[in-house]
Structure formats: structure tokens, C-alpha cells
Design a protein that fits this description.
The structure holds three protein chains of three kinds. Chain A is mainly alpha-helical. Chain A is about 75% helix and about 0% strand. The chains are: A mainly alpha, B alpha+beta, C alpha+beta.
Amino acid sequence: MGIISLEKLDHLYWLGRYTERVYTTLRNFFKIYDCLIESPEGAYRDYCERLNIPDIYTSNKQFVSSYLFEKENPDSLISNMNRAYDNAIVLREEISSTVLSYIQLALDTIEAGAGTTAPVFDLQPVLDYLLAFWGCADDYVEMEDCRNIMKCGKYVERLDLYIRLNYNMKDIEKEFNKLVHRIQKTHMCYNMEYLDRLTEMMNRRADWKTEYQEALCYLGGIIEVR
Amino acid sequence: MRELIDHTEGINRLLARYGVKFGLYKNGTFHEQLFPFDAIPRVISHEQFLYLEKGLIQRVNALNLFLEDIYGEKKIIKDGVVPEEFVFSSSGYLPECEGMTPPKKIHSHISGIDLVLGKDGEWYILEDNLRIPSGASYPMIAREICRQASPETFRNNPIVDNRNYAKMLKEVMAYVNTGGVPVIMTPGRYNAAYFEHSYLAERTDSELAMCTDLFVEDNYLYFRDYRGKKQQVGVIYRRISDEYLDPMTFLPESLIGVPGIMDVYRSGHVAIVNAPGNGVADDKGLYYFVPKMVKYYLGEEPVLKNAPTYLPFYEEDRKYVLDNLEKLVVKDVAEAGGYGVIFGNELSREKLAEMKHLIEKESRRFIAQEVIDFQDMNIMEGDEPVPRKADLRAFVLSGEETKVWASGLTRFSRNPDSFVVNSSQGGGFKDTWVLSR
Amino acid sequence: MNRLKFVYRMTLSFSKPVWEHYFALRCLPQDTGNQKILTLSSSVTPTDCLDEVRDGFGNKKYVGHCREPHETFGYEVRGTAEVTGMRQMEEPLHPMYRYPSDYTRWGTELEQLSMQLGEREGTNLAEAVRVMGFLYEHFPYAPGVTDIHTTAEEALCIGKGVCQDYAHIMIALLRHRGIPARYVNGMMIGEGATHAWVEIYTGEGWYALDPTNNLHVDDYYIKLAHGRDYKDCVLDKGRFLGDAVQRQEVFVHVERIEKDSDERGNNLL
């Protein structure tokens, strides 16, 4: 233990990103699902827009089941959880069996939930496991560099989603500061120009509705992994 | 013990949580499958273990001396104990290892010796695995969980702790290390034993490396980190087979090997665990000669018995095999992992004739053995104990000393009619207890 | 006895840059009972590192790599040797040369040819010379019909081939007759490519025969490497990354040094 290869760096970063993607989109979905209870048929289209995903669905019900559980749907929760798992499984000796087990539990929970009539109810433990994963990572991932790289991935993803989903500026700024702080702690190469541009956008309180694509482009390019 | 068995489901749940799985390819796609655990342990008494330990150490020491001899002086051939044809036409013999001695003269650092307990109360050796035997990680982690499930069981029984495997392995790796970091090399997560690779790396504080992390420079092996810094590797526990190890020496199309690693190894600049070329000693055809090796190299009577084996290569044996095929088990020496094993009593008349013809034509390719009537072990099926076939893989580690791990992998077949207990053919596993008194 | 001056040059050109290029070169002649290397110089470009090692068959080998992208790769070895042919090189036999290897696996075509040859006769050497003569008579030389992957059995099926095929077929036949034999890579007087022939074990040592030309290997040959078959002693092996088409050119020149001429080689090659 003690050496992080380029390959592992990549997996650590994307593990951070995908766990965060599952976590934040699931939290978001819970709100949407609540609204969908009384919404007219077809309301899912608005949510696709809000979630910033292509509308490939046919009904409210089909949207719920596909968006959560369909393995062939690249935007689905389970697809993203599988990607998190694919990155985690190759990191056992970096992150430890204990930390890895929470990813396994989250994935197993989603897999077991397919076909449920009460997704929010059944998927609640996924959020618990992911929170436990991050808490546990702080305690069990021994190499500081590993933790920092994972967290960089997490904040990049969170910012990405907050900007896409049009969160308020205060939240975005808070997460941005966390990312900047974390990047400076790692020994990774990062793109200073993109970071500066993004800082500039933050400072002038850019209008994310019109400028989000530019912002996402800078954000995605800050940390140069495959 | 009842308490432990009552927790079977919970134990399996925890095993799933920790990702205790093995990979399988079905119809060309990769699946991960849980490795079902049965809570009724195999119990080996203190006296029995002392006996096994003595026999296994003897056997593995002889096999290591054989490998050193074959790639060196070849005395056992010159003295006519082993026919050279069995050695030099074996696919496991690698001329690329000719004339070299691995660090500390150890060829087989981790030996997985498969045994069965016969109804006559005798242990029989089924085969030696000296290349990359897998399976130690499963009982290690299962024990950890069993102790949580039923502390009483472990308080009330004198069971030797088996969680020292990682420590033993680490010591072996440190002993042969030529100066550098220890690395466990995996072909990747789509390998059947990936769980084990990653778990052992975690437990031995080794780097888990893929071929892309490793490179050869000026005849030394290095590990490269993400900042481009390199660290010399002193010992590599590789979990890929010889032919994929070095595309510059073996299969040029291998994408999971490290180009040039064989030259580094030949120059003595890195220890490879287990050493390349070991396949010549665990060849099914050579198995017949292991008791002779024990006598030849150690001057001792072999403690452990082989299953009664016939080599159709020898005329007398061939005659016996052809006359008694329907009660024998025939093994193709080129195949591994439960494949290429044919039970004579399961063959139709035509197939039997076909087999006989093949044995006559390619006598060197097969060995035949008496079917050992081995003791069944109970497994739980629902709430009912039912008898099933089971074997034991004992792990023998060779470093400064040769040691037997006080546990092992007990695999059982879930199919009541099957004798094949290989996990790749759908079996489960049990914990193996060695009693301390 | 002859003094020979030799050059072996290999150039690879790639259609696009390649990188992470690892190589193993087995074109380093060494002293044997039949040849003494008097001078030897070599160059490999481009390369990040270069080491001389020995393989399991006893051949000398240059290994190294070039990480940076490059479009050409070249290797040259030149030197002078004192060669005595038609002499047995005394050496204990390694048993691996008795048994079939990948390229010399037995098959029905080989079986048939062996039947035509009839029972073995005489000493190992006499029998080997007889087999060589028979093969030379029955197997026409033709370039381009076989390739480096062709086995002895396949070459016989095709019915003609080049030096590699002659050597493999002869080795397969000899081993089957209980005569140990090995494959040799080397150079022959004149200009052209490398050549392959056979060494057979007489009982006390190795003796070289050239089945392609039906000749005893004399003092116009320089040996580079040997093994069980072609696969064991490939002269240039490489592996690189990059989607490039490669073109290999090999230049071999061996000439006799007249007694009174300058042996450092004033005749420019």
C-alpha cells in the first residue's frame, strides 16, 4: 500500500463522482416522485427537463420504473450505481473491504427494489448506505491522497448537478469552495485556467440558465482523468 | 455449533456484503456469483492435523527440490526415477526457466494440495496445485464472520485461528523479496478469483497491480504511480498464468502481461510467486511420481498416499486400465479445474470403446485412477442435513520454513450425484477447523 | 577455416508513430566449437535502455525499450569471425531436443514421409544425412507459399517451402527416429536474408546440417541462435502501442576476408 497508479487515480475520482450522482439524483427524485403522485399523465416530461436527461419515456409510471431500475437505460439510477460499483470493486486495498461493503449494499438494495410499488420507501437505505460510505471512507481509507481524490470527484459531480438542476447560488458557491479547497490538497494535475474561469463565473454571479454549458465544460476539465 | 448453523443465512448475507464472489463466464458474458457457504465445518483433530502437516510439508519440500533439479542438474532423470518424456514433453515445462534458480531456491511458495478423506479413514492426495492455487481467502473471511455469528462456538471449542494466512503470505513474500515493494498482480476484475486478489492485497498491505501499472527498465521491474514516480518491485505475487506473464517471451498477444519481466526474473532482480515453470511438477502425469520424489530427494517414506493411479504409458498399467476402464476415473493431463475428468462408469458402451482407443493411441495423455469412495460430509439443505461429496485444499507456504496453514478450503458439490467439487462447476464451501488439542 | 566479416541490419519503419516499444533481439553471434567471434560491434536506435541477457537456451539477447513515439527503429550488428565448419561441437544433450515442439508436432503427412524413408539406419549422423538428402529430393524450394507460422506438418501439406520449413520437417523426422535435433538461425556467405538450418546430436555433440542446400554446414556459415524450433529463437521480437503498419527490412552480408586484407574491414559494406 502507498502507491496510487494512474489507473487507480481514475477509479477513485469516478467512484467519487458516481456515488455522488446516485446520492444527489436520488434525493432529487424523491421530491419529484412526491409531486408525481397527484400530477397528470405526462408530467414526467417536466422532470426529465429538470433532471436534465433526455426524454425517452412513455408514461409517468414507466418513467419511474425505467429511471430507477432499468439497466439498459444509461441515465438510470441502477446504471449509475453499477458504474460506482465498477470503480469501487477495483479499489479494495485502497479503500478497504469495510468501505467497499457499503457500495455493495447500496447496489444490492437497488437491485432488490426493481418492481417495487413503493420506491421511496425501499430505496431510502441506499441514501443511508451512501452516507455511511462517505463517513466510513473518512475513517478507513488510510491514504489521505485517496480520500482527497475521491472527494474531488464528489464535489465536481455535485457542482455539475447543482448547476444543471439550477440550485441556488449560495449552495453552488459553498460546494465550489469545498472543491477548490480539496484540489489544493491533492497532488493531482489540474487545469488552472479552467478553475480560474469558473471562479470568475462564480464571482460575477453568472446566469446558470444560459451559461451552464460553458460552466460544465470548465468544471469537467479541471481534473484531467480519462 | 447449532447456533452457528442457525446463522447460516446471516453469514451468507455478510459474505455477500463483503463481495465474496467468484466470476464466471456464461455464454460469453461475465457474471459474478456468490460462493455459497455451509456452516457445518470440516473438523480436523489435532492428531490428524499433525499427521497431515508432516505429510504435506514432506510432499511440498520434495516438489520444490524436484523443480530445482529439473531446471538445474536433472539428477532424478539421470538416475532413472522419472522418465524424461514426462518432464520435457509436458506443456508445463518451460525451457525459458532452464538453468536458473529463483530467489532463495523456492519455486512453489504457495502450494494448494487437494485431498479427500476416504471411507477407510485414510487421506488421499488428489492433485498438487503449484501454479496459482486459489481459495484461501474464502475460509479467512468466513471465519471472521462465523466468529461474529456465534462467539460461543469459538469460545467452547479449541479451534486454531486461521486468520493468520495473510501474515504467513506476507512473511513468504518478504523472505524472497529482492529489494522493493511487494505487489499482487491481477489480470483484472473480470477474473474468476478477483475477490481473492483484492482481498489478499488488502490483507497483506501489497499493491494490487494491473499490467499497466508495471514496467521494466534496465532489467528491473517498477511500479508507476499517478505522478509518474517509479518504485522498484522486489516480489510479485502474480495471479496470471505463465503463458500470459511476458508477451516478449511467451504468448505475444498477451495484453495482461509485463513485457520483459522474464528477463528481470532470470537476472535475479525480482522474485515471482509462484515461480514460472512450476506446471511441470503439478502436471497430472507427474503426479504418479511424487511419492518417488519424496523417497529420492528426502530419503523418507511418503507419509501421505496418492490415490491409486495407473499410467497407460507403462504397458502393464495400460493393460489394467483397458480391462477395468468402467470402474476407473480417467484424467486428461492437459486439462485443469475439474474439466477433462471422465468417470468410466458413466460412459456408454460406444464412448467406452472410443475412450479405450484414445488411451491406446495417446497413452501419455491420460492417467487413470481408482474411484476413491470418499466420506460424505453433511451440508444443510433447508433444515435438513444431507450428505454430499467434499474435498479439502490444504495450503502449504514455503518461505524460510515450509508451513501448513491450519485450515484449508473445503469445497462440496451441491449436486448429490456429483463427485466434482470444483467451484467453477457450481459447488459451495465450508470452514475447516483444525483443533488445537 | 575461414575468416568472415558480417553485417546484420534490421530496419523497421512505421506508417504512424508508435510508442512503448519493447524489443528482444537475438542476433548476437557467440563463440561455439565452430566459430570464434573476433570483433563485434552493435547499435540500436532509438532506445531508452539496453541490456544484454541470456535466454533459457543459452542465446545472447539484447532487451530494452523505447517509450517515446518514433517512426523508425533500427538495429545493426557487425563483426568478424573465425569459422571452422563440419566439426562436432561437444556438449551434453538437453533432453528437450528429443521431443516434439509446437512447430515440429507429428502428423499424418510426416508419418507418410517417414514411411517412405523406411527404417532408420546407421549412426545418428549417417541417418541425419540420409534424411536430409531425402528431404532435399522430395521437398522443392519455393518462397512465399509458407510463412513464419507454418508448422512442419503444414509445410508438407503445402508441398514446398523455405529454409524454415526444411529445418522444421527435418527436425520432426529426426526426433521421431530418436535423433535429437535443434533449430538454428544464422547467416550464410553472400548477401540476402538470414538462414535457418539444423543441428543434430551425434551422441557426443552437435553437428550442423543445412537441408535447404543439402550441405554439411561448413566455414561459410555464422550461427546466431538456436532452440527447439523457430519460435524459441526468433531473431527480432517487438511489441509496441500504436495503430501503425510496420515494414521490416533485413540486410545481411557475409564475406570472406582474404588472408592479407585488413580484417577491420576497409571494404565498405
